[in-house]
Amino acid sequence: xxxxxxxxKQADALKAAGAAMASPxxxxxxxxxxxxxxxxxxxEKEEIERKVAEANRAWEERQAREAAEAATEAERAKAEAExxxxxxxxxxxxxxxxxxxxxxxxxxxxxxxxxFITKLGTGLSRSSMRLTExxxxxxxxxxxxxxxxxxxxxxxxxxxxxKVAARVTKHxxxxxxxxxxxxxxxxxxxxxxxxxxxxxxxxIVDFSDGPRPRIVLFVGVNGSGKTTTIGKIAxxxxxxxxxALLVAGDTFRAAAIEQLTVWGERAGIPVMSKxxxxxxxxxxxxxxxxxxxxxxxxxxxxxxxxxxxxSELMAELEKVVRVIRKLDPAAPHDVILVLDATVGQNAxxxxxxxxxxxxxxxxxxxxxxxxxxxxxxxxxxxxxxLPIHFIGIGEKAEDLRPFSAEAFSxxxxxxxx
Length: 417
Ligand SMILES: Nc1nc2c(ncn2[C@@H]2O[C@H](COP(=O)(O)OP(=O)(O)OP(=O)(O)O)[C@@H](O)[C@H]2O)c(=O)[nH]1
Ligand SMILES: [Mg+2]
Known about the structure:
binds magnesium ion, binds guanosine-5'-triphosphate, two-stranded antiparallel ribbon, alpha/beta
């Protein structure tokens, strides 16, 4: 009875303690074994839970570590890419500078080549003749007021302009007044003075540089040499492998279109044209769009010759410039005024008018062969802050030369020939 009661009490106690399925029939050993088993299972479960938690923690730690590693790697790759980009840019810049320096050196060598100066001198012989003869007449003389006055007159009549004439003689008198001076010395001194006036205007243009497509507009009075100059430049560009397009913007005359086409064919550079009478501005618009599509380097646009005092024609030129600006506000990138040296002092008013209308950025002077008026280039250089890119000394492709202040000055005073 007591035992029974004891068993029941034990069973109740077990029940109360939450022991599962305690059986009143189990003996004390069995109960102890069961308890031990339950404890073992609980311990095992706890061990498994601990292991799972540990595994989870390890996994989470690994995840975090891997994420951190990936972030570091991404940072490193980004920094590396940035460094590479910087190095690439530096290299491209270095190559560009190297190319530019080489092109400049080649052009300068060409402009200062003694053979060229001799040729320019021969070309400029008529320009230099008046000066040369005059200088020879001055002979070996004392540089007194009378000689200086004669020299000043000589320079004025050689189209150098009153301002340059006064400046040069004043400078000469400061340095050598009242001293014996030989003809050769006068020439040397004169060449040096003229070089000083021209030097700031010396600017060799490198069409391979700058924006793409670089849009270059040629303007000037009738017959100044625009079409020929474009043709000569096209020949050079072809040699240098530029991808260019010539535009026959002189739609007034059939002969003009044909003339440019001949130059283009000779140089192997395409020419875009429209029938005579077509709107020049429209043609120019289409040409620039095409150059963009074809990813060309250069567009050289010829225009019809127009006298600077014909306001209607000047307005038409303004329209061409306006249309170009609509496509690209920075264009035309060059507006090159082509001047004919034979017109002498009239060239000054051409510069003034075309600068106003078309925003001239640079000059070319043609026909320096066979004129007595080449000195006007010095007057222009004195009056206008405009670079002189090229000079023309004949009708052939090779007769367009980069402008060199020194070569020109020497040839003008008869030192080159
Ligand atoms: N001697 C010499 N002749 C040149 C030179 N440049 C151009 N010419 C000649 O001058 C003439 C006129 O040249 P173009 O190129 O047709 O002149 P343009 O400015 O296009 O003339 P328009 O289209 O009528 O306005 C041509 O016979 C050329 O061969 C040069 O430097 N020296
Ligand atoms: Mg022409």
